[in-house]
Amino acid sequence: MNTRTEDLPDTEEPAEPDRPPAAGPVTNLVIALLVVLLGGAAMAGSLRLGVGSLAAPGPGTWPAVVSAVLVMLGLALAVRVRHTDDAERFTRSGLLVLAAVASMAVFVAVVGTIGFEVPTALLAFVWLRLLGRESWRTSIVVSLAVTFALYLIFVGALDVTIPHLL
Amino acid sequence: MSAVLDGFAVVVEPKNLLYCLIGVIIGMLIGVLPGLGPAATIAILLPVTFGLEPVTSIIMLAGIFYGAQYGGTITSVLLRLPGEASSVVTVFDGHALARQGKAGTALGIAAIGSFVGGTLSIVALTFVAPLVAGFALDFGPPEYTALALLGILLIATISNGSRLKAFIAAAIGLLLATVGRDDFISAERFTFGSLSLADGLDFVPIAMGLFGLGEILYNLEERHRTPHTPAAVHNIWPSRSDLRQASGAIGRGGVIGFVLGILPGGGAVLSSLAAYAVEKRRSRHPERFGQGAIEGVAAPETANNAAATSSFIPLLSLGIPANATMAVIFGALLIQGITPGPQLVTEHPDLFWGVVNSMYIGNVLLLIMSLPLVGLFVRILRVRAAILAPITALITLIGAYTVRNDVFDIALVLFFGVLGYLMKKAGFDPGPMVLAFVLGSLLESSLRRSLLMFDGNPGGFFARPISGVLLASFIVVILLPVARSMRRRHRSGRDRLNEPV
């Protein structure tokens, strides 16, 4: 980027005040190794597909080239572990995300059999009450209203075939 | 010329006008709300566009994109809280002006600058895009290989955060694009025996997951403080002296925004930074910047709107998306059965000119609405993020199902949502990944076709003038930063030697 930071005025508050602390070198190393592993696995898969030759490229040629580049980039990242500081540490608030993902996994698991209304209301309630720490009243009212509104939009107006009870 | 006029006829159809209005209103809303950006919003709303005609859907999505540039300004000025990344620099002088009781002036200048920048850019787009498209009609596989490579490279180079990580994200995106049946001999690749994967990964769940759900999850970690009470807004119409002071900045910002918007990886964020830096550097009183200089609001706000508009040029004329939002609009066009490329202007003139001309109308709508509605938008900010999060998440999940009426797609969105969250945590920008995924199959098939053409001799790329020049610039862009850092290291090593012991 050509814009240098000295062109921006110093301000008393940083633009992103709530940024969690940076992750340590171990996390960064794990990230780099994951990249190398992914590249290696893709490379193995591409070789099995058959790489052909430059004159007659096979189905594995292109994936093999890309995975080779990926492995090299991952190794470069591993070498520079001490100079990277852009990864964030996982803090307690990461548990909120875990709970959110779990609630959505349940949504995916049951929506095909029991329709979308009940899972929708439950998911909204969980996010409002447990994740957002809204009051009982707000959580109940908003989750019911949201379900009703989504029903009107998707089933009523857009006539989507999402599994529904009513 | 008649095609241009026909385009206006398309725009003034009541349905298209309505969706243009809906688009710019949604755009302003998400521009005001910190958190969801235009790429995420457009990704989440992709399923809604299925039922619409191609022109109408792209008019709406484009409206969201440039509308967001208007909205982002409001929170930057009033709350010191940039709603969009492209309004971050507006915070410095915009909020300083608000503290001096001149919030209205700042918003007024920003709205006028945005309008001028957007409109100038559309006029230029009207003339430049068909020229580029006409030039690109002769492009063969080697040119497309070079163009796609250069596009991915530039996007990764200019993306947020570490360049190395951007390249890694792009490489993974290219690999994701290879999942499914091979276009040439229909061998199944990386499908793990799954029937749902045999047709390849669909763009919609990937974009909805990485951009939409990933961003929602990332924001769950209570990243945004509840905003404090905003400054009062009055005197929106800027005085004549303010206008005179800002007019130069608006002109320069418009040009910078237009040029940077065309470049792959440029777009609104980079151009607003560049326009601010230029104004500060050429000012005779650079110390005024950060203390409430009106040019510090006018230049970046003009530039980001100009760039938002001009970044449509590479998409509509070459079929190469210049930034993350354009990648999602590329996906929206594919859903409608339209492959963006140089043939778009001639084969779908109603779409091309309809979308381009809708931007004139959209900008007028934004100019009319943005000033009187400031108060309303400020009130919307009071809606807590905790209430908005489940609503956006549910729209994403249910919307994902509607794409192919398949629960598997909701699971995919969830998977890519988690991936997007983890990538952001680990310092990877998901933008280059989505872009590389979009360009992946074009890149692979053109590369393989070119290699067949050249009998496997890669030197063939350099024997053709256009692909040769493009690939040469590809190599320059890769080598330049390496050379620069080596020179710097060399110099610092020499300095250390010269230090007295």
- What are the segments of chain B in which pLDDT stays under 50 over at least 5 consecutive residues? none
Query: Can you give the mean pLDDT of chain A?
Result: 82
Q: What's the total number of strands of chain A?
A: 0
Largest sheet of chain A: none
Total count of strands of chain B = 2
* Count of helix runs of chain A: 5
What string gives the helices and strands of chain A in order?
HHHHH
Low-pLDDT stretches of chain A are 1-6, 10-17
- Tell me, briefly, the overall form of chain A: flat
Oligomer: heterodimer
Q: What is the helical fraction of chain A, as a range of percent?
A: 55-70%
Tertiary shape of chain B? globular
Distance between the termini of chain A: 55 Å
Measured on Cα atoms, how large is the radius of gyration of chain B? 23 Å
Return the string of H and E elements of chain B.
Answer: HHHHHHHHEEHHHHHHHHHHHHHHH
Chain pair sharing the greatest interface: A-B, 84 and 77 residues
| Main structural class of chain B | mainly alpha
Can you describe this structure?
- The complex is a heterodimer of chains A (166) and B (501).
- Helix content of chain A is 61%, strand content 0%.
- By secondary structure, chain A is mostly helical.
- In chain A, helix 3 runs antiparallel to helix 4 and helix 4 packs antiparallel against helix 5 (136-157).
- Chain A is flat and about 60 Å long.
- The model of chain A is unreliable at 1-6 and 10-17 (pLDDT under 50).
- Chain B has helices spanning 2-11, 14-32, 38-45, 54-79, 90-99, 103-136, 141-158, 163-177, 195-198, 203-220, 240-262, 267-282, 295-310, 312-318, 324-335, 344-347, 349-370, 374-380, 385-404, 407-425, 430-453, 460-463, 465-498, and strands at residues 180-181, 188-189.
- Chain B has a two-stranded antiparallel sheet.
- At the A-B interface, helix 1, helix 2, helix 3, helix 4 and helix 5 of A face helix 8, helix 10, helix 12, helix 19 and helix 20 of B.
